[in-house]
TrEMBL record:
<dbReference type="InterPro" id="IPR036866">
    <property type="entry name" value="RibonucZ/Hydroxyglut_hydro"/>
</dbReference>
<dbReference type="Pfam" id="PF10996">
    <property type="entry name" value="Beta-Casp"/>
</dbReference>
<dbReference type="InterPro" id="IPR022712">
    <property type="entry name" value="Beta_Casp"/>
</dbReference>
<dbReference type="GO" id="GO:0004521">
    <property type="term" value="F:RNA endonuclease activity"/>
</dbReference>
<dbReference type="GO" id="GO:0016787">
    <property type="term" value="F:hydrolase activity"/>
</dbReference>
<keyword id="KW-0378">Hydrolase</keyword>
<dbReference type="InterPro" id="IPR050698">
    <property type="entry name" value="MBL"/>
</dbReference>
<feature type="domain" description="Beta-Casp">
    <location>
        <begin position="177"/>
        <end position="251"/>
    </location>
</feature>
<protein>
    <recommendedName>
        <fullName>Beta-Casp domain-containing protein</fullName>
    </recommendedName>
</protein>
């Protein structure tokens, strides 16, 4: 029932639009399947949590902002987004609050990127914070460096491909798929892997990749250079994106 503004970055808005719709479609299908089972047992049907039209309505409430573009959102409260470097469009939320002349800065963030990402910019520090609220699932864990990803992918794929085998890689539709495609593009382009056919078999992954292409403002300098020189980091002659169920079945 919330009818107010939902503030987010431009990339978050575009990703949320396709992900909310995809989630709604899955919920409708799951509810229909469970209701069919319930009917056989004399149980009442179940309803999806929300419908595709609910997702569409929610997206209309989104107000998109660029990074480092302060905007008043309430009396005495100014909102600024700063890059969190986690996924495309992720942001740390800075709230500068002025209560009767007393000024404080509150910083909220979900996941924060590790830095040295192949596609995204590093998370940006925030200065002069008075109150910090932050997601901390991995707060006590030392993550390995991400810089060796290309070497790991090459080592995993080279032997199988050179022996005529096939490799299946499950990957999240948002973030991981694009990272893998870009890494494979670099490896094939450098001659470190043979020119083999690559298929991305997921409508959501395909749609998410289109969103990535639209938001180079989130890219780091390396992929931005690749974008200028090679045109499309997420496209190459040996890469096929699959949208239709019939094509997926054929594959």
């Amino acid at each position: 029932g919330f009818a107010g503004n939902v503030y987010c970055t431009f990339a978050t808005r575009d990703l949320a639009a396709i992900m909310l719709e995809d989630s709604a479609q899955i919920q409708v299908a799951d509810a229909a399947y469970i209701s069919k089972k319930h009917k056989k047992k004399g149980l009442p049907p179940v309803e999806p949590l929300y419908l595709p039209e609910d997702a569409e309505s929610a997206v209309r409430q989104f107000v998109s902002l660029g990074y480092e573009r302060p905007i008043p959102v309430a009396n005495g409260v100014t909102l600024t987004f700063r890059d969190a470097g986690h996924i495309l469009g992720s942001a740390q939320v800075i709230l500068d609050i002025d209560e009767g002349g007393t000024k404080r800065r509150l910083l909220f963030s979900g996941d924060i990127g590790r830095g040295d990402h192949a596609i995204l910019r590093d998370p940006q520090p925030v200065e002069d914070v008075d109150v910090l609220l932050v997601e901390s699932t991995y707060g006590n864990r030392e993550h390995t460096a991400q810089s060796g990803l290309s070497d790991e992918v090459e080592a995993l794929l080279a032997g199988t491909l050179n022996n005529g085998g096939k490799v299946i890689i499950p990957a999240f539709s948002v973030g991981r798929t694009q990272l893998l495609v870009y890494t494979l593009h670099q490896l094939v382009d450098a001659g470190r892997l043979p020119d083999f056919p690559i298929y991305v078999d997921s409508p959501l992954s395909v749609n998410a990749t289109e969103v990535f292409r639209l938001h180079s403002e989130c890219f780091n300098s390396d992929i931005y250079t690749f974008l200028r020189e090679k045109e499309n980091p997420f496209g190459m002659d040996n890469l096929t994106y699959i949208r239709k169920a019939s094509e997926s079945i054929k594959l």
